[in-house]
Amino acid sequence: MRVFARVVEAGSFTRAAASLQMPKATVTKLVQGLEARLRVQLLERTTRRVTVTADGASYYEHTGRLLGELSDIEATLSHAQKSPRGRLRVDLATATACMLIIPALPRFQALHPDIELDLEISDRLSGPIGENVDCVIRGAAYDLAHVSRRLGAVRWVTCATPGYLERHGAPQHPRDLEDSEQNLVAYVPPATARPMVLHFERDGETLAIKGRCRLSINDSQAHLVAALAGLGVVQVLECMARPHLERGELVPVLTDWQRPPHPIYIMYPQNRHLSAKLQVFVDWVADLFAPHS
C-alpha cells in the first residue's frame, strides 16, 4: 500500500523508487502483486508517465487514511512524537526559501537533528501529490483538496538603484511609471506566464499599473538581480530587497503608496497523515512567520 501510494504521489515508478530508496524493479513487482491480489488495475502505464485509474484513485483515497492511522500507531510505539525522524519533502517558492526558510534552518536542525529535509525550490506552482512532496509553502491556497494554514503575509517594496533614479528621475506617482522616461522590469509568474501588474493603494484608492516594460523575467531572484543592475523599477517582496536597501544599493520609491501584503500558506493533502515530523515542521514555520502575521 505504501509503495503504491508513493507511485501515485510521484507520478512515476522511477521517482517513487528513488524517494523510497528501493530498486525500481522491486517497486514495480510490489505494485503488480497488489493489483493481482485485488484483481483490478490500479495504474495505467505508458512509456512516458503513470496515471491512476478510477479504481486506483478510490483505493489511494481509502488506504491513505488507513496508512495515516498506522503511522500514528507506529509513531506512538517508537516514541517518534518525542523525537521525530525521517525525510520531509517540502515544495516552496524561491523567495520564501532563500530569504526566510533557509537562513533559519540551523535552528530547526538543532531542534530536530533526526529530520532530513528535501527542499524543492522553484517559482513554478506544483501540487503536493503530483510532485511527491509532503507539504507546500506558497503565496496562495491554490487547491481546495489540501489543508491550508495561513502563516502570515510579507510586505512589498517598489524600488530601483540610485544610478537608475539619477538617469530617469524618481517617480512621484504610480502613473509616472507609465511614462516613456521610466522602465519597469516585469516579473512573469511561471503559473500565469503573464507579466505581473504593479498594484498600489493609498487612502482607499487602488491602482494597477502595467508601465513601460523592456525586460520580463520569470525567476524572482533574477528579477531582483536585474533591478540591482540598474535596468529599471521593480516591485519585489521586501524580505528579498531588505539587505540591498540597507546597503543603499536599492532605494524605495512611491513609499506613500503600498501594495497589499503577500499572504503565505502552508499546505498538505487532506488524506496525508500529519506525521510527527510534519507537525513539528509546520509549527516551526508558523513560529518563523509569526512576525509577519
UniProtKB/TrEMBL annotation:
CDD domains hit by this protein: PBP2_CrgA_like_3 (cd08472)
Coiled coil ranges: none
Record-annotated HTH lysR-type domain positions: 1-53
InterPro entries xref list: LysR-type_TF_proteobact-type (IPR058163), LysR_HTH_N (IPR000847), LysR_subst-bd (IPR005119), WH-like_DNA-bd_sf (IPR036388), WH_DNA-bd_sf (IPR036390)
Gene3D superfamilies: 3.40.190.290, Winged helix-like DNA-binding domain superfamily/Winged helix DNA-binding domain (1.10.10.10)
PROSITE patterns per record: HTH_LYSR
Assigned keywords, A-Z: DNA-binding, Transcription, Transcription regulation
Membership in a protein family: Belongs to the LysR transcriptional regulatory family.
Protein's recorded name: LysR family transcriptional regulator
Species: Nannocystis bainbridge
Phylogenetic placement of the source organism: Bacteria, Pseudomonadati, Myxococcota, Polyangia, Nannocystales
